[in-house]
Structures are given as structure tokens and as C-alpha cells.
Amino acid sequence: MSNLFDLSGRVAIVTGASSGIGVQMAKSLAEHGADVAIFARREEKLKEVAKEIEVIGVKALPVKCDVTHEDEVKAAVATVLEKFGKIDILVNNAGVASRFGVLDLEENEWDRVMNTNVKSIYLVSKYVAKHMIDQKYGKIINTSSIFGIVGSASAHLHVYEASKGAVINLTKGMAASWAQYGITVNSIGPSLFKSEMTEHTLFVDSFLKMYNAVCPSHRPGKEGELNGAVIYFASDASNYTTGQILFVDGGWSAI
């Protein structure tokens, strides 16, 4: 019986891969056999992560890239194609959090969050999908959030919620358009996981108290608990699954 989750011979890009969830996703893809290109702005961090990935026994390519700038994205994707010759998997993971509501939200903060969480997916997908369409195969995975479908009563997360809701419908739109080319586009919707993005915004006593009371599992997610979803969407196990949002949320979306 073939291993549906074997990614040997595949090439993946992971954005926002200099720390936290992005690193975990990149390593998980590597552990299943994929060569991995990692995008982020912090070049030294990327180089450290690349060394850790190569220990697994695959190739790793660190690419300094601000995924909110089209010229940098275009050049970064070209670098990956020059190095590996193809791109099979794209994980759009770059993102930022923001604890502001509409009444106290500055315009530049709105733009920062929307550009990082939504515009980056548009830009990277734009240049990667062109290649995937030509090769008639591709797996695109976008990181959304439970806050793409619910609001928070204990913290004002308005721009974050708006951005993650946009990710969900962008996922569905791209999925509907590109299924004919053998490309699947799906999204993972985490609830609360610790990362550089959330450590100082959501991992605070007031929010954790509410979260643990509301979430059926009564705890945040642990390191590695998103990896199964990533590998499913990245592998041939999901060839007939597209436009879907998989919430990895300890049961939050069940209530």
C-alpha cells in the first residue's frame, strides 16, 4: 500500500518560516520528504532554521523576502524555481496579530495587518500558482484562524478578525478557480497556539482565562498539533479536497 502522506520529491515553500508555527510546518514537511524553501524577512533566523531542516536529510533554501512587496515576492519565487526547478506545495503562513478595535485602531495598523495577513497570500499565490497551472499540479495551504468565523468578547481583535475572514473566502475563491488545473487550495484555522505573534498579544491572563473557559479542551494548542493538517493538505491524501477550512481549535468551532 502506498503512503499517501509521502512528500518525497516534492518542493514546498513556507512563508513566515523564521519562527514559531512556520518553523514547525516547514520541519514537518521536511520530515515527510519534501525539500523546503523558507521565506521571511529575518535572514539570519532563516539560515538557522535551514540548517535544522537539512539535518532531517532534505534540501532547505532560506530566502529573505518581505511577502507584502510584490517585487520581492516575484524574485523569491524565481529563486526557488531556479534552485529546485518546480514548486509543488505553498504554505501561506506569514501573519501578525493586533489587539485593537475599530474605535482605537490607527489606519497604519489596519494596513499593516491586512497587508501581512491577506495581501501576502494574494502576492505569493499569484506567482506560485502561475507555475502550478503550467505543471497541472499544486497544493496551496493558507493559515486562517478560528477568528475568521467568530469574534472575541474579551479582546478587541477587529482587524485581525477581518483579515482572517478574508483569508477564508480568498481560499474558497482560488480553490474554485484552480481546481480545473489540479490545484487544491485549503486553509487551516488554528485557535490559540503560542508563537512570537501571539505570545504578547493573546497569551495574557485576561484572554487565556476566557479562552480556557470557552474552549472545550480547556487549553491552547501545543507545538506540533497543526502538523497533521498541514501534511494532509500538502499530500496526495487530499487530492479531491479543495476550498475547505480545517479548524484545529480544541473543539471551539463545535459550540
From TrEMBL:
Query: What are the entry keywords?
Result: Oxidoreductase
GO biological process, alphabetically ordered? bile acid metabolic process; fatty acid biosynthetic process
> Can the keyword Oxidoreductase be found in this entry's annotation?
yes
Q: Which GO terms describe its molecular function?
A: oxidoreductase activity, acting on the CH-OH group of donors, NAD or NADP as acceptor; quinone binding
**Looking at the Swiss-Prot or TrEMBL record, what is one Pfam family this protein matches?**
adh_short_C2
| Top-level lineage group | Bacteria
What family name appears in the similarity comment?
Belongs to the short-chain dehydrogenases/reductases (SDR) family.
Q: What is this protein called?
A: Gluconate 5-dehydrogenase
Q: What's the source species for this entry?
A: Clostridium uliginosum
